[in-house]
Design goal:
- The chain has 11 helices and 4 strands, in the order H-H-H-H-H-E-H-E-H-H-H-H-E-E-H.
- Helix 6 links the parallel strand 1 and strand 2.
- Helix 2 packs parallel to helix 6 and helix 7 crosses helix 10.
- It starts with a helix and ends in a 30-residue tail after the last helix.
- It is mainly α and 339 residues long.
- The protein has a two-stranded parallel sheet with strand order 1-2. A two-stranded antiparallel ribbon has the order 3-4.
- The protein has one domain: Ferritin.
Length: 339
């Protein structure tokens, strides 16, 4: 309970500091929608665009809010054993419950402190987006973050080919420091690529500024998780191997494009890179940042993001971590892609 109180207090402090930015958000939401050209850049076909209204800035923020619900609930449960306050879960669409979250068995003081910081940031992201969206904020959809045999973490680990024989075929992200970091690794890299893909499509500069701030925070989080896994992988090489397998599985799920190849949907094998060491100028180097030859990270479309959180290569509207799908008034922002 003390941890929960501390987390809420930290959230209050962070939200207060962001009050001025949210005021910009509220004003900005009243102007501008994305162009059809922006929708095309996002990966929507002409047919799909004709059938569904092009996503507005509000739609994009609600798309982001769904992801923040997932991340915030995972970290908040892992740190405190309880989820977000009920007042932070309401909104338009069908509100759902969280399945399977619990306090993680963390023993490493550094990992515990990382988890506390990220949990507070993710909760602040939810509060900030909800405040910005006001009455058009979507409710939290049903979220499954169970570490049990039939849960999405086990499904993701199994699909990645991680050896689960020592744990009876189960991958529980709450069982240990190492498992927690691998579970967090599934989310963090996806969050970064989601914001990078959506940010250029936002038409209002004030919203873009705030979204860029969240993108930077998510990138820091991803760096923390990748760095922790890399360092712990010195003593436990299987950690790096398993992180690499998760990256490969995400590549398989989303059918991602090479960020350096332009607009053509050229499928490549390793846009989503793991954390194992690489060779730069003939010398061994870490791989904290999954960059291309231009030193840039890559992005994902909303459909590709849904492929990963739904744990499927098919075009569906629910599954995996969102058993009933994500909430968004624009159906184009609730489906995965056909890969």
């Amino acid at each position: 309970m003390a941890d929960s109180v501390e987390l809420i207090e930290a959230l209050d402090r962070r939200v207060k500091r962001r009050e001025e930015r949210r005021e910009f958000f509220r004003h900005a939401l009243s102007v501008g929608a994305l162009t059809a050209g922006g929708a095309a850049m996002m990966g929507f076909s002409t047919q799909a665009t004709a059938q569904t209204a092009a996503p507005s800035d509000t739609d994009i923020l609600n798309f982001a809010l769904n992801l923040e619900y997932l991340e915030a609930q995972f970290y908040t449960y892992a740190v405190t054993g309880a989820g977000l306050p009920a007042a932070q879960l309401t909104g338009t669409g069908t509100q759902g419950a969280v399945t399977g979250g619990r306090q993680a068995n963390l023993t490493d003081r550094t990992v515990i402190q990382y988890a506390r910081e990220i949990a507070a940031d993710e909760a602040a992201h939810v509060a900030s987006l909800r405040s910005a969206l006001g009455t058009v904020a979507v409710a939290q959809p049903a979220i499954n973050i169970s570490g049990a045999a039939g849960g999405p973490f086990t499904a993701a680990a199994t699909a990645a080919g991680i050896d689960l024989s020592a744990s009876g075929g189960v991958f529980d992200p709450y069982a240990s420091d190492d498992n927690f970091l691998l579970g967090a690794y599934i989310f963090e890299d996806v969050g970064v690529t989601a914001y990078q893909g959506a940010s250029p499509l936002i038409s209002n500069v004030d919203i873009l500024d705030a979204a860029a701030g969240i993108l930077a925070a998510e990138a820091f989080h991803a760096g923390i998780i990748r760095g922790a896994l890399y360092a712990r992988g010195v003593a436990t090489p299987a950690l790096r191997t398993n992180a690499d397998k998760i990256s490969d599985a995400r590549d398989t799920l989303d059918g991602n494009r090479n960020s350096a190849s332009g607009a053509l949907p050229t499928i490549v094998a390793d846009d989503d890179q793991g954390i194992s060491p690489v060779t730069i100028n003939g010398q061994t180097a870490s791989n904290f940042v999954p960059t291309d030859t231009n030193g840039r990270t890559f992005s994902r479309t909303p459909e590709q993001v849904h492929n990963i959180v739904y744990l499927t290569r098919n075009q569906v509207t629910a599954g995996g971590f969102f058993p009933n799908g994500t909430n968004n008034p624009n159906p184009a922002l609730t489906r995965s892609g056909a890969n």
